[in-house]
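Fold this sequence, please.
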Amino acid sequence: MAKFFGLADDRVLQYTDTNKDKKNNTFLNRHRLNFFQLKKKPHKISPSSAESHLGARKQFLLALDGPGIPQDLFAYPMSWSSRNAIAVACGFDVYFQELDTRKICHLFKLPQRNRGRLGSIEWAPELPHKLAAGTMNGEMHLWDADTQQSLMRWNEEDEADVGGLSWCGNVLATGLGDGIISLYDHRTKQSIGRLNMHRDKVHGLRWRHDGHILASSDQAGVVQLWDARASKALTEEKRWGSKMKHHAPTKVSTPLPLV
């Protein structure tokens, strides 16, 4: 402390604490805490950070009631469309709100025969009135928000729960609990392709902007890249960077729409 305030040089106060049980010495602990507070630098907030915006706005902009939202950390119960509508999956129901008009609509409720709750929903970027919804028992639903009608329903054979979703034009990529990635075209009733790239549940999917490359991630932390034009994984060619391994389950981030 004397050196910190410039009252001594390096030749004095070479102090080491010889107390074996430091937890019981409350007197020294208080002095250590006070000294660390003196040395602590003030926290600087970047003006572009979320913390800065939250500090400037003492109140939130909008609150959405979502009873029954999945508790799974790897679920995708919310989706923001390119025409400024937010959809929320609440148990067996999906609601959406047009943020421009603040109008709230109930889009659909899962049939009574369905045994699984909703886990993931995703608006189609190029078809913003269409919403895909996946359940925890392997069902995929496609709904039209304008007419509030069901357009399509797909079923997975093994009833694997649905993980990540990602649209590319008319094609929807769906990650499943058994590690399979199913590809659907909203104009057809059958799956147009299946990718066996993972050994664990696929949590994240995201197409590249041109639709040529699909990135996928799973429960084991593996990230794969798939070449849509060649219909094969880039890892088959052992290309650098085509497969990445993390030490925890991995999701893929979703960019906000331009509204």
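The longest helix spans residues 26-39. Helices lie at 26-39, 50-56.
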